[in-house]
């Protein structure tokens, strides 16, 4: 999901930055309504940013025109919630750019959108139903696998979009190599997600789990 500086023109980067700021502000607005009901929601956002930074630094390798990362998107989404992870992506990318890779500041908006827009799609196309008290939809391993697949199709699609409108000619095969590399993540990450949710579900009456996660809202199959 990482686009190196130089691939996207300055004008398009400015447009991406404006789009990312717009999504971030919208996410903040959504979280304010959650904050009124759950005052610890901002802390979940900081946890999401922290976990995301750890995941990103724990494994990353160059593949084709981008990089393969362990993102932990669905593990965080199903344990910390939608807006904390949405905002946590942008905050985590900003922190990493400031602390580890200053050159990434140039494409902060580009890379943020590559993570945030697929999460919004996953949430409203299927994930949101899992947290709806009025529905009886239960979370299963198959459901986690489906959400993960949807998310990473979105991420690889976003990378393809940036390369398509970029200033550097990139062969389709280079993007395809990157997209195929994420199959390993799609296979591995659902296992991590299932273990995390199942483990927290077993101790959902714990005060920390009850207040700092959304796991108690989920119904397991």
Characterize the structure shown.
It is a single chain. The chain is mainly α and 221 residues long. The protein is built from nine helices and two strands, in the order H-H-E-E-H-H-H-H-H-H-H. The chain has helices at 10-37, 41-58, 73-80, 82-99, 108-127, 141-164, 172-181, 183-202, 207-212, and strands spanning 60-63, 66-69. A two-stranded antiparallel sheet has the order 1-2. Helix 1 crosses helix 5 (108-127), helix 3 (73-80) packs parallel to helix 8 and helix 6 packs across helix 8. The longest helix has 28 residues, at 10-37. The protein is globular and about 55 Å long.
Helix and strand element order: HHEEHHHHHHH
Which radius of gyration do the C-alpha atoms yield? 17 Å
**Could you say which overall geometry the principal axes of the C-alpha atoms support?**
globular
Separate helix tally: 9
Averaging pLDDT over every residue, what do you get?
Answer: 88
The level of helicity is 55-70%
Uncertain parts: none
How far apart are the first and last residues' alpha carbons, in Å?
32 Å
Helix vs. strand class: mainly alpha
> What is the makeup of the main sheet?
2 strands, antiparallel
Strand content: under 5%
Number of DSSP strand runs? 2
Side-by-side strand order of the widest sheet = 1-2
In short:
The chain has helices spanning 10-37, 41-58, 73-80, 82-99, 108-127, 141-164, 172-181, 183-202, 207-212; strands at residues 60-63, 66-69. It contains nine helices and two strands.
Write the layout of secondary structure elements.
Elements: H1 10-37, H2 41-58, E1 60-63, E2 66-69, H3 73-80, H4 82-99, H5 108-127, H6 141-164, H7 172-181, H8 183-202, H9 207-212
Antiparallel strand pairs: 1-2
């Amino acid at each position: 999901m990482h686009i190196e500086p130089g691939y996207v023109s300055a004008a398009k980067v400015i447009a991406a930055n404006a789009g990312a700021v717009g999504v971030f502000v919208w996410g903040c607005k959504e979280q304010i309504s959650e904050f009124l009901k759950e005052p610890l929601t901002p802390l979940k956002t900081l946890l999401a940013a922290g976990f995301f930074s750890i995941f990103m630094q724990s494994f990353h390798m160059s593949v084709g025109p981008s990089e393969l990362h362990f993102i932990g998107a669905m593990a965080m989404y199903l344990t910390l919630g939608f807006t904390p992870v949405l905002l946590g992506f942008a905050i985590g990318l900003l922190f990493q750019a400031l602390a580890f890779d200053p050159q990434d500041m140039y494409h902060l908006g580009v890379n943020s959108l590559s993570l945030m827009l697929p999460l919004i799609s996953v949430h409203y196309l299927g994930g949101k139903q899992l947290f709806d008290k009025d529905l009886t939809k239960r979370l299963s391993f198959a459901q986690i696998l489906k959400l993960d697949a949807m998310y990473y199709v979105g991420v690889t699609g976003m990378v393809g979009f940036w390369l398509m409108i970029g200033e550097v000619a990139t062969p389709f095969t280079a993007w395809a190599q990157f997209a195929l590399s994420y199959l390993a993540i799609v296979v591995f990450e659902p296992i991590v997600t299932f273990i995390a949710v199942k483990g927290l579900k077993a101790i959902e009456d714990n005060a920390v789990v009850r207040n700092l996660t959304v796991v108690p809202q989920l119904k397991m199959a």
